[in-house]
Amino acid sequence: MRLVSFDAGTGGRVGLLVGDGIADLSARIGVSSLRGMIEAGRIEEARPHLASRSDHKVADIRFLPVIPDPEKIFCAGTNYADHLAEAAAVGIKRTPTEHPPLFIRTPPTLVGHRDPILRPRVSTHLDYECELAVIIGRPGRHIAKADALSHVAGYSCFNDASVRDWQFHTHQVTPGKNFAATGGFGPALVTPDEVGDPQALDIATRVNGEVLQHANTKDMIFDIVTLISYISTFQPLGPGDVIATGTCAGVALARKPPNWMKPGDVCEIVIEKVGTLVNPIGQESS
User: Fold this and answer.
1) What are the structural domains of the chain?
2) How many Cα neighbours within 13 Å face the side chain of 286?
3) Parallel, antiparallel, or unpaired for β 202-207 and 210-216?
4) Is residue 173 within 8 Å of residue 165, measured between CB atoms?
5) How many CB atoms lie within 10 A of CB 243?
């Protein structure tokens, strides 16, 4: 199943992608948010509606971030060896660590499928990063690796767009990762039965149709079960929490010259079995 958060003109709703349309689950089964639906254990109530006629055309709705209101968003840094190497090649030293390097994003940074990622007024160094997002379903603390995937509600595409000069103001990356409207997230939560092995998915970035990143999730340094287990040791993971699992080589920062995203560009994150997240690039006005 592919579940979405959307707005058809009356505020946030939950939907199920059916063909080229959306079945409105808020109207059909009375759920008000995807996070709430996950928390209440009601995901499977959507399945009988897969054969239904749609209530909205995809062209007529606005996609919201898959989880518009996550309590926590954890992001893995330098989680592909080739990205670690390309950073070193341009003078950014990231020593491999025994445990996953992590940082946190905040919900106001998120934008949905087809909405613009905004280049901030204070920088032109806006970079793209294709990432597989993991959305937590069943809550847990001290989750064993062997049980980790049973806590996953689904997967989505994530663009961890980074404002690179602000990212490197100090050794803490938080500023460059938390400008408003820089985290593309969508289009849908894809349930695990459709994805299969999450460590065997091709992943890529296209900007204006050109492939600039391409890898496979098997190349992660710290796999998904390791990330879930490690994070849940210091924070309880709850329904709707998001883990962005890191990006591969090919980022703008490592290119000569850097090909920063600019207003008018279109960035696509493409993940096998998960979908394609499309965000035009806009300019922050104030």
Assistant:
1) 2-63 (no CATH), 73-283 (3.90.850.10)
2) 0
3) antiparallel
4) no
5) 25
Q: Is the pTM of this model over 0.90?
A: yes
Cα within 13 Å of Cα(137), Cβ side: 19
pLDDT for 92 equals 73
**Distance of alpha carbon 101 from alpha carbon 95, whole angstroms:** 10
Q: Is 71 exposed, middle or buried (0-12, 13-18, 19+ CB in 10 A)?
A: middle
* Whether the predicted pLDDT of 86 surpasses 90: no
Q: What pLDDT, on the 0 to 100 scale, is given for residue 84?
A: 78
* Residue 25 DSSP code: H
**Is residue 172 a contact partner of residue 99, using CB atoms and an 8 Å limit?**
no
CA dist., res. 2 & res. 104, Å (int): 26
CA distance 278 to 198: 21
Radius of gyration (C-alpha) of the chain in whole angstroms: 18
